[in-house]
Amino acid sequence: MKLLLATTFFLFSLSSCANDAITKGSVNETNPIIIQKAQESGIAFISNGDQYQLISGGRAFKPDISPSGISASQTQGQSELLWEGVNGAFDLTISRSNTQQQNAQVLSNSGNYRQIAYNQRTEGIAIITGQIIVTYTANYDSEFIAANFGIQLIDDFSHLKTAFYTVNPDQDIFIITNSLSQSGLVSSAEIEIIENFAMPN
After folding, report:
1. Over pLDDT 70: what percentage of the chain?
2. Which residue of 78, 110, 140, 163 is 20 to 30 Å from 60, comparing CA positions?
3. What is the reported pLDDT for 64?
4. How far is CA 46 from CA 117, 120, 134, in A?
């Protein structure tokens, strides 16, 4: 009887510890935490012909430029961290806390991390670069678009009628991209994402 009680207590302890454990995985493995946090954000957008959902509490870090060489897990408290993964040169994390959730451009300017998004079709995770790719018409050039929307022109490939922009810290990249798309001034506007990274041979 004592052995049965000891075994039951041991199994109960293991299951309660498992609930608090950080889930680690590949970006190619569907994880319920990723799906849940993508649904929680309520923000969906189209890029490269695929639909993405912003992952609430999600971040992408480049390990070599993490603040003071501290790992991504250490910068968010371990009690807040729900999931860790890797995509290309980026360490990915999803935390419980959404208090620091801001628009992607603010995060890009910080140099520490970027937001991430979930692709339901591929079940992959993409990094949001913080830039908007705009294809414009002959009627309005890249500078006119920048001035009209109060955004920053980064690169202009006029022969392709394509320009790259970033938003200002007080602007939301998702709202601005949607406004550009609906304006009638451009052919298309998409948030730039990177989902698939080239693997070294």
Report:
1. 69
2. 163
3. 75
4. 11, 12, 13
- Reference 63, options 34, 36, 90; nearest CA is 90
Domains and CATH numbers, the chain: 21-129 (no CATH), 130-194 (3.30.70.80)
pLDDT, mean of residues 10-16: 40
Q: Read off the pLDDT of residues 98-141 as tens digits, 9 standing for 90 and up.
A: 544 445 544 444 557 899 999 999 999 999 999 999 999 989 99
| Full-model pTM | 0.75
